[in-house]
Amino acid sequence: VFKYVLIKCVSGGEARTILRGYGWAEYHDDIFQEVAQVLELEGVTCQCVGGGRISHDAEAKKLSCYGYSQAYGRADHKLSVELLGPKHPGYDINWSNEGY
Question: Which of 9, 51, 80, 91 is the most buried (most CB within 10 A)?
Answer without folding.
Answer: 51
